[in-house]
Amino acid sequence: MTEPVDVVLIGGGIMSATLGTLLKELQPDWRIVVFERLHDVALESSNAWNNAGTGHAALCELNYMPEGKDGSLDPAKAIAINEQFQQSRQFWSSLVEQGVLDAPSTFINSAPHMTFVRGEKDVAYLKRRYEVLKKEPLFAGIEYSEDSRVINQWAPLLMQKRRKGEPFAATRVPAGTDVDFGALTRQLFDNLRERGVEVVTNREVRSIRRLADGQWKLKWRNSVGRTPGEITSRFVFVGAGGWALKLLQSSGIPEISGYGVFPIGGQFLKTTDPALVAQHKAKVYSQASVGAPPMSVPHLDTRVVDGEASLLFGPFATFSPKFLKRGSIFDIVTQVRWGNLWPMLKVAIDNPSLITYLVGELLKDHGKKVDSLRTFMPTAKDEDWELIQAGQRAQVMKKDPDKGGILQFGTEVVTSADGSIAGLLGASPGASTAVSIMLGLLQRCFPDRMDEWKPRLGELIPSYGESLNPRPDAAEESLSGTAETLALTA
What cofactor requirement does the entry state (predicted)? Predict the structure, then answer.
């Protein structure tokens, strides 16, 4: 390839697939090339078994609505996450109607979202959270109960042989979803190929360098045969999971200075026992362990992958120096620069509880992991559950003017000053809010084109540019409309 292309997307995951689809809808004449280092797309974080498949809408995840020091509960972040997920639902709904995506059941299914807590303190917190959220239009239908008979109807496995006298409570939102992001990613890339996008697998980008004219030269090599090559592009998006940091560092943009990542792997207990699967139709979240990062909040989940239902419980944190499941053992070392050394050291100094948590997780054998499951499901038996390895997550560490360095939870887009290169760091709620994240990226990187693109974006995402929650009728219309198109029935 000698002629410059318009866009290069690095990484074959849901982020690149979403951005590529948006750009092809908005600017069909642009030449777009996608590079994936593995033999197929959706094999790292977007793969169905490398994540929990939760359609993150803050319906059940307590970390999106923490209790303030004064005991107050602010729903702003939970509402914002829900707004972002509604944009994803609207976008997917539009693509289903266009025939871009296959039957909805191939990538999204109903799974009520529940929160289950024990102990007087957490019960009191959950009740106050419910009282706040039930007033918000995007959380319409949320239910609360401390009655074992009601919770047993919602999720029988939670209540069988539950200890008498133990305080517990649950909330439930029937409109929750389970998403197979691997299937969704593959379908989006299949459509991009049909529309002329070059999706090249087994090709690893090794470096990114800015040319004198402002364009970017990317050097790559084939994973098979190691044949090298290069390509020039006007715009580059780095959606390469944990490796995004390394590639952005190679680009030399000052905006990446001060960033580092800490890799955290995950494992899940999984069962396909029909008798157990039939008794649990929900995603049930609880409080995180002390010191645990938000992505490690325990949950017992319904999963539907390739049409087969199963249950997952976890995650259990693991450690590997690799930034990707198929990364390099030197990743954690080769990221170090003068600009991020102190922020990363400061994070380690300030977060001993995270280290304690990780050590405790690593010491758990299969039996201990099933013991953790029994806090959700008292009747769990060791032999009914197998341990599966999930994906690697890159926990962002960044420079902070006050503390020196902080852990940055969630996802973060890093963009050059001129908007010609951008990359995504971080993890949850990532995939669920990919559409919102990419809309923000378009605004930052192509501000001069947004007026031209706005009408088409409004067709694809009816709520684009507006908030749903302050408009109850619009919120209800969005929820019911996408539920109908995506065939979501509780």
Answer: FAD
